Amino acid sequence: MLKPLFTTLLISALSLLSTSAMADEQKTYRWRLAETWPKDFPVFGDTVKSMAQRVKEMSDGRLIITIDSKNKHKAPLGIFDMVRAGQYQMGHSASYYWKGKDLNTMFFTTRPFGMTATEQYAWFYYGGGMELMQQVYQPYGLLSFPGGNTGNQMGGWFRKEIKSIDDLKGLKMRIPGFAGEVISKLGASPVNIPAGELYTALERNTIDALEWVGPSLDLRMGFQKVAPFYYTGWHEPATELQFLINEKAFNSLPEDLQQILMVAMRASAYDMYAQSMHENALNLEKIATQYPDIQIRTFPASIMLELQRANDQLIEQFKQQDPLTRKIIESQERYQGIARPWTQISDQVYLEIGQ
Amino acid sequence: MLKPLFTTLLISALSLLSTSAMADEQKTYRWRLAETWPKDFPVFGDTVKSMAQRVKEMSDGRLIITIDSKNKHKAPLGIFDMVRAGQYQMGHSASYYWKGKDLNTMFFTTRPFGMTATEQYAWFYYGGGMELMQQVYQPYGLLSFPGGNTGNQMGGWFRKEIKSIDDLKGLKMRIPGFAGEVISKLGASPVNIPAGELYTALERNTIDALEWVGPSLDLRMGFQKVAPFYYTGWHEPATELQFLINEKAFNSLPEDLQQILMVAMRASAYDMYAQSMHENALNLEKIATQYPDIQIRTFPASIMLELQRANDQLIEQFKQQDPLTRKIIESQERYQGIARPWTQISDQVYLEIGQ
């Protein structure tokens, strides 16, 4: 009698043990992600959805990420704080939105006259950029990763043509952040207006110009109906969005799920750059066929030169503020200094063939 | 007595069942990958290693991919056949190497005067390129995926300066494939020489010129010591390598491992484009500092025009060969036709600022 009973108990115990081990391995982690964007926002929102879908499929359902959009959490510029507090394990936003909290966050999105998207990805992943970004975010208990690139952003929609620096004097333009400071040095008045009011502001002459993203996202806003001059870009050559992760939440994941999350973010971020190219191409064609009166222009060289000078002055001021700021800027300047000559003799020369 | 015995048996049976279910889920798949490249080949080889490492980590060791390099399998151009036969589950190579087996494979790497890397990624993933590539590979029981981009390749190393079309007449140049056919229409003699003999052939005037990749991989070959003119590119604007997978092997994987494999390949392929930018930048700087006598040149416009004409003629001939060939070429032409205007008003105009 003793033996079978003992066996029964042993098997029961082993069985329980095995069930429990399986349960641990099969544990489902449920994460919440807050994004800055409205629900179903094209391109940006697609990037978040594809990342979450890939994580779900690769983890066989062991890591499920639910996405809350702006309409749900009501705090599009509160992502940093909400992820820091652990209210959300994860966010999708843009690093330069946090410059009021920490100036050094501003340099991990893009900057006027900075690197192209490919140069910048090379800097992030092979040129020391990731390490500097983590140095900036580490004190906040946050991890930051590239979150998708828009490519070169257009300089904006203008109601009147800009022929000389005089045309910029007093010009009221929606152009936030660093670029707004640069253009204000040339006499323009940068203003900030919520996205939902931009079209009306431009239509009613409350503002004379605005910049948004590029053909990929601009046409749905309707700007082409009220501002006939569409200027090429100088101020955001490679806007990289951001995945933010609460470090404690990340550390609580098993190693395989950490890797799954990191590779999914990386692939989906790169994908956004290709998708932006696609959407820009389709929508630029739409401008040509459906809005043939739109004039695509580039600022005259004299204006570009002044913008560059103003930008250089601001950059010099930033360098004085903090040794880490200087370190980041110098790393980017050094990198752009070696990457740009290659871009010039490869893609640039190639694009000039036959023109 | 009956009850405990029954319970014992039941528990044993359940326990066995559970062990077997666990074993299935924990089953380790061991795959072999054959790459065209030598062992520890920079950039290309790094891409394969990073893919295999990511798969291992994300699958928690459930899918292990062992890499065999050229020195092991001795068949650098046998990847297609070996993966097709199931001798290897997977390969890393370049699609245009298989043009002798199927002309249509040639169009999924790059082609003279074709798309840039970003345009081409957009075409693959958002413009129908992947679907066309699978249509070409499906009859062979193979799956093909982008395997990493070199970026714009240099036009090659020349012992003498090329000033006019006359300088191309009779020029012996190592330039394989499609580009070789194009340049032969201008009177040059394309020759094929194994990689290991290239330096000696150039040094001893057996050939007058050669193209390889770009600064990222050229300097280790030593060409800069014997050919002072380094020409910019026209023939391979965005060389994409290839991951090849045996379809039956792929289908035998559980769905989560299939996803892990696909996302790892995708991230590592994109990474290679960024790594190529990095290595090109570093090595171009090395040319400037260590080999200042190297002259970087672009073919005169008259030569470019003739190369384009010859290319157009060849493309027209290809279109006549097979309805699928025509479909692929027309898809690429249409895509480049809408993507290029965007590239021009974004990155190209931006790169021209301040020059």
From TrEMBL, chains A, B:
The keyword Ribonucleoprotein does not apply. PANTHER family: EXTRACYTOPLASMIC SOLUTE RECEPTOR PROTEIN (PTHR33376:SF5), PTHR33376. Keywords: Signal. Residues 1-23 form the signal peptide. This is TRAP transporter substrate-binding protein. The keyword Signal applies.
